[in-house]
Amino acid sequence: MSQIGKEIIDFKVEAFVNEEFRTITKQDVLGKWSVFFFYPADFTFVCPTELQDLADKYADFQAAGCEIYAVSCDTHFVHKAWHDNSAAIKEVKFPMLGDPRGVLARGFDVMIEDAGLTERGTFIVNPEGKIVSYEVVAGNVGRNSDELFRRLEALQFVAEHGDEVCPARWKKGAKTLKPGIDLVGKI
């Protein structure tokens, strides 16, 4: 079953962000674009490379009006310990959500029940709190923040210009398509 258009669940979790603990709720997400970036666990191998990649592009996401929420089933305390001990994670400025009960992992349908971990799932959520993009990748393959950002910009563009669509490899400022009978068979 597709998750496109599904409203995110109501939630309240603890996060580690900007050297402090903070409560994050669904209300904090509504009204702006968000990325929920699930990863299996802290103190692992591929995960810190992904979070560092996102940290390197975080300013671009913020400039686009989008917040990133990194999520694992670890606690916010473990997130702080990882942040304090890993050069890669020290660069993370976006909220790291603790989900030890798996509320978010189950709500986004990425919980690996028998392991107590999450799949490597990425969700873009629009300001209304609805999922507009998602992908789940095998646990041994890292994701790319450049492609995630390109997809965010395309989704923002079509949300603003509903009569236009973005072709493959579209980047902000590039030509879009306006669906109509005159394009059928011409592309």
Task: Please sum up the structure shown.
The chain is α+β, with helices and mostly antiparallel strands and 187 residues long.
Give the arrangement of secondary structure elements.
Elements: E1 12-17, E2 20-25, H1 26-29, E3 33-38, H2 46-63, E4 66-72, H3 76-85, H4 87-90, E5 96-98, H5 103-107, E6 111-112, E7 117-118, E8 120-125, E9 131-137, H6 145-160
Parallel strand pairs: 3-4, 4-5
Antiparallel strand pairs: 1-2, 1-5, 3-8, 6-7, 8-9
Write up what this structure looks like.
The protein has 187 residues and is α+β, with helices and mostly antiparallel strands. 30% of the residues lie in helices and 24% in strands. The longest helix is centred in the N-terminal third of the chain and has 18 residues, at 46-63. The protein is globular and about 55 Å long.
Low-pLDDT parts are none
Mean pLDDT metric = 95
Structural class: alpha+beta
Helix content: 25-40%
Widest β-sheet, arrangement of strands = 2-1-5-4-3-8-9
